[in-house]
User: Which sequence fits this backbone?
């Protein structure tokens, strides 16, 4: 009996739905639209943006076999698809690949139905009934994005604010959920929150209000969009440094890896933004200063270098994906030993190394780095990562380097 999996892009109006059909012999037939048809989430993308998509399947399509094996093989056979990697150990497992050069993140949601209609209503309780936790988390992104667009008073102004905020976050090193900073949905809710409170303000005024508001926000008071319902704050067993509530559920917050170190880094960048934008009405105000890249080599004297390698490029992608999904554990371990760690989200490559590799440099406080046994940290982190990694294990090497050794 034929069935369908619909890939739902996080878009506002026409959804791009690519249908992946499997017939009675359990073979897929794939029809994928061209990149020119892609609508990026809030229309705030640039040439470096990736696409967050969602694959929805019926109750008998398992993530272990049908998604990560059958669908992966079908996608790998497509000429448009390259660099496909399975990130199975993440809190929200997904496939990551490139479609005609555009990066795609594709998690999977398994619904308790026999077949998936072409126009799935992600707000319909019928489709949300009795689904597992990972599927619920996968669906949350689509639900939140659609709800945000319904709640903002002016979609175009909201999009403009979000573009600016996202650029600022990337330049200042506070964008990247896996490294304990903001993800796209966090910035979308914060931007929508400001737009809701000031529906008639100009773009420049909203940008100023954004930094003024969150520079002095009384965290951990949650940020909650107004949607006509007074949702209560529901405590969780996880420390929420910056709780930001999803606008589609009274009990769910944006998934966050923010820890103490990244919390204070974000707060300091909010304050810096406020101090700069409060003078934005002056004729000599220079916007470039606000978006200056964070000066890691000038800010820190020493860094922990995280060197990841594998025997080939495909294995490296899977290995790096798994390790990055565990980065929060490494940040917390370094915090315990040193009190602070600033993970630079930029991924580098060592061109002199013989194997395919990825390298990260995280800023460390200068006073206590001589006391750290980085070899012991490496062994512990590698052990915890290997416990969840199901592919060929790559190499991981931690070392302490000086600022002048950065690329």
Assistant:
């Amino acid at each position: 009996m034929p069935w369908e999996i619909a890939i739902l892009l996080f878009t506002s109006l026409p959804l791009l739905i690519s249908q992946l059909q499997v017939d009675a012999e359990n073979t897929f037939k794939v029809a994928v639209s061209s990149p020119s048809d892609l609508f990026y989430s809030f229309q705030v993308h640039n040439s470096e943006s990736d696409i967050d998509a969602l694959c929805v399947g019926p109750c008998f399509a398992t993530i272990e076999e049908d998604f990560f094996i059958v669908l992966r093989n079908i996608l790998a056979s497509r000429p448009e698809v390259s660099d496909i990697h399975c990130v199975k150990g993440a809190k929200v497992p997904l496939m990551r690949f490139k479609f005609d050069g555009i990066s795609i993140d594709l998690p999977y949601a398994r619904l308790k139905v026999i077949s998936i209609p072409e126009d799935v209503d992600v707000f319909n309780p019928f489709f949300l009934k009795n689904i597992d936790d990972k599927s619920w988390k996968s669906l949350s992104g689509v639900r939140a994005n659609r709800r945000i667009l319904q709640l903002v008073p002016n979609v175009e102004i909201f999009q403009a604010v979000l573009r600016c905020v996202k650029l600022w976050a990337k330049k200042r090193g506070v964008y990247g959920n896996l490294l304990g900073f903001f993800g796209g949905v966090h910035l979308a809710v914060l931007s929508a929150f400001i737009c809701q409170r000031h529906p008639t303000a100009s773009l420049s005024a909203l940008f100023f209000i954004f930094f003024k508001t969150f520079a002095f926000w009384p965290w951990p008071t949650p940020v909650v969009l107004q949607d006509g319902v007074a949702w209560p704050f529901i405590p969780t067993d996880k420390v929420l440094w910056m709780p930001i509530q999803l606008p589609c559920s009274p009990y769910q917050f944006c998934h966050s890896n923010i820890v103490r170190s990244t919390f204070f880094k974000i707060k300091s960048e909010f304050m810096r933004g406020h101090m700069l934008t409060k003078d934005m009405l002056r004729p000599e105000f220079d916007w470039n200063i606000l978006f200056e890249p964070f000066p890691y080599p000038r800010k820190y004297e020493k860094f922990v270098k995280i060197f990841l390698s594998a025997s080939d490029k495909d294995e490296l992608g899977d290995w790096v994906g798994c390790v990055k999904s565990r980065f929060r554990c490494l940040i917390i371990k370094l915090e315990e030993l040193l009190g602070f760690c600033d993970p630079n989200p930029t991924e580098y490559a060592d061109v002199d190394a013989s194997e395919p590799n990825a390298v990260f440099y995280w800023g460390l406080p200068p006073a206590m780095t001589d006391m750290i046994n980085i070899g012991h940290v490496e062994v512990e982190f590698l052990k915890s990562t290997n416990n969840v990694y199901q592919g060929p294990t790559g190499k991981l090497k931690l070392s302490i380097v000086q600022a002048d050794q950065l690329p």
